Amino acid sequence: MQFTYYGHSCFEVEIEKKKILFDPFITPNPIAGSVDISKISCDFILVSHGHEDHIADCITIANNTGATVVSNYEIVTWLEKKD
């Protein structure tokens, strides 16, 4: 298992060649200012809740990677309307 911390609530776990990104708050996060989200690859994005500091880059990263977003009903329904 490999763990990558991007700051605040955002981190990535790689297990058996699958990458899971948790709470993608990178672009507006000053701690993660050097991270280029276009270079992030992941298979799944898990979003714990809909606050901006947990979901800010979800749509962009999901579109760039084709990752499956896993979250609660309200967030997934909101994201479906954003496509």
Describe the protein's architecture and organization.
It is a single chain. The chain has 83 residues and is α/β, with parallel strands linked by helices. It has a single domain, classed as Metallo-beta-lactamase, Chain A, CATH 3.60.15. The chain has 3 helices and 5 strands; from the N terminus they run ββββααβα. The chain has helices at residues 52-55, 58-65, 73-82; strands at residues 2-7, 10-15, 18-22, 44-46, 68-70. Strands 1-2-3-4-5 form a 5-stranded mixed beta sheet, with no helix packed on it. A hairpin with a 2-residue loop joins β1 (2-7) and β2. The mean pLDDT is 94.
Describe the structure concisely for a colleague.
With 83 residues, the chain is α/β, with parallel strands linked by helices. The protein has 3 helices and 5 strands.
List the helices and strands and how they pair.
Blueprint lengths: L1 E6 L2 E6 L2 E5 L21 E3 L5 H4 L2 H8 L2 E3 L2 H10 L1
Parallel strand pairs: 3-4, 4-5
Antiparallel strand pairs: 1-2, 2-3
Q: Which CATH first-tier class would you pick?
A: Alpha Beta
What is the CATH topology classification name? Metallo-beta-lactamase, Chain A
Report the portion of residues in β strands: 25-35%
Largest sheet, in brief, is: 5 strands, mixed
Low-confidence stretches are none
> What's the arrangement of strands in the largest beta sheet?
1-2-3-4-5
